[in-house]
Amino acid sequence: MNGAVLIRGRHVLTSATPESVTDGAVRLSAGRITHVGAYRELAARFPDDPVHGGPNDIVTPGFVNAHGHFSEALLAGMAEQYELDGWIRELIAPVAPHLRREDAYVGTLLAGIQMLRSGVTLVNDMFVCDPVGPEPVTPGVVQALDELGLRGVVAFGAGDARPGVEKAAVIREHEALEKAAAVSRLCRFRVGITVVAAQSPELFDQSVRMAVDGGHGAHIHLHEVREEAAGVRARHGLSAVEYCADRGLFDAPVLAAHCVWNSRRDLALLADHGVGVAHNPVANMVLGSGVCPLPELGALGVDVGIGVDGAASNDRQDMTEAVKTAVLLQRVHHLRASALSARDAFRMATIGGARALNMGAEVGSLEPGKAADVVVFDGESPALANVHDPVQSVVYCAGPREVKEVWVDGRPVVVGGEVTSVRTADAVARSREAAVSLVRRAGLADLSLLARV
Q: With CB atoms counted within 10 Å of each terminal CB, which end of the chain scores lower, N or C?
């Protein structure tokens, strides 16, 4: 759909300057935003453009889900009793060698539908699996994102520490995903590194070369839990952040997930190298990992976005929940209502996430020339009946039920609250079969009533 449209709202929140336009509209044409301004002026100037949204709606930039794992999409609601190390050992590691391309495709459909219905237009994903089968797994992610019309930065979460994983197979998986992303309209590739400890020094150096020399950038977990930070220092004599800087990873654009347990030097290195950070409040709470130091990162000028994280550590793939939780977690941690505001979280979920991914010139705000990624929140919903402050209403009041329309690259991918390109009921039914098969293959039926039926 390349014809021009106007998207109207009582409040247009831009994540730019000006911050908002009352009784405004955004004009989309050929996949780009061409105008942002007063609805009456744009309607008079472009009388033939069809109008979407409505006089009481709230129009925003699409949310940027700065960190997630489609590899966990079939594992929601399992293994809540573990902290991170036990969770990896008892759930993620047993599943990793059994993930297939079909699981990647179906899981991405399932999680992607939830993301779209919560206003996500760009997801930064790391698919974690052990590439031990005959067929590459991760291209299934790109296939599903293209079908959904959801923009993606895709990475394979690579590691060679587990038995049976060969470095050559890891590189082949990277290459297969890079090739799939290269022919996608909406996806681009990054080099994935699960954690420093998951890679041999040889594989890490090869990952650095791919990220830097290949111009791809990298997606990595850093300092999610204290044990990770201590373990890397014991092995290498450096923190994980210091190790990445020392080995040259930060010479490429890097998105680091979590960054909870940091020294002052770690924080300074992140800032000095322009590393973007993805804050994952719900997953950090579920796994008992800790609280990201947002005030310190902000004071140093580090770009921070918000991530939903994977369905095995968050469970719900709901960006509106993550955005609200980001505010609440900081406030209860610091015992101060001013620790993080709704405006802070809204910007993190939009332009902050885009900048953390080095994509701030392309997405994340409603400005002429940027990609036409737009969300319309339903002003006729009971939750948004009385909008005293539109930013607070989006952050604290809105949920997936309030997401009326989502546009990605100028195309409507959610209309009337439903995705337009796939049948949700079919994706749900197909995912049940895939989940049962995956859990049984992994030997985890004792954790799943579904797999014992």
A: C
